């Protein structure tokens, strides 16, 4: 196996790890009884806290950004905070299957945005893979779509949250060409958390008084879906095009629905089980043929300033 193939397999493995990690997000949120904006805020602040030990190594880059970069970081962070607020709220109003399925719209929005803003090309296999994954996602939620009442509100919130995270991904693709994964994630998570903190202050939600169990859930959200999910995907934006990275959300309904079935007792039909395999096949096709113009190359490891996780040097150009 040559160096290029090894790099390719590494990216694919990390991609799968990220999908599984973000799939736990909906389960942890369902377990919590705190306001979703508080859950999201502490999820992100705790992630920043976990990243602090490495901040000294990036001290020069952290504070030497242009005005334009600060502006784009702010918009990316606000979009991420809005995504968490809207999508996490949807989980309180509908099932995991229905809430996560609308995230399948994200790669479509990102692909369109990538074409208009970055002129990223697509090919037939990418479109076929996306179509398979979207059809499978619709099948997973087919037994739970509701057209009235509380569930409809949850569906709308999930769709709006998907629009917000698509904006976050597109801005991130641009900034990751200029910034290391650590610096980008650190400031985006901080800005998102602070925007949610301001929202909580306006709403009058308490910042303290939560049971140890709630703090444990906040920490799990920081470690599993945020560090091993969102951070990892933002790192991959340097090496895989934004539409391909955003396809990860199409694997989320599969694992989230299975976890909800096992841990929350939510029902899943045989059709939905079969659709899960269909989604995974579509996701594989998309990531297999969806790197676009981003070339996968063998990248040297920078031992002096490793990212989290310790991976190829972010400073190597595509």
TrEMBL record:
Protein name as it appears in the record: DMT family transporter
InterPro entries: AA-Vitamin_Transporters (IPR050638), EamA_dom (IPR000620), EmrE-like (IPR037185)
Residues passing through the membrane, by range: 12-33, 39-58, 70-90, 96-118, 125-145, 151-171, 183-203, 215-233, 240-264, 270-287
Keywords, comma-separated and alphabetical: Membrane, Transmembrane, Transmembrane helix
Family according to the record: Belongs to the EamA transporter family.
Membrane topology, from the record: Multi-pass membrane protein
Tree of life domain: Bacteria
Tagged with keyword Membrane: yes
Keyword rRNA-binding: no
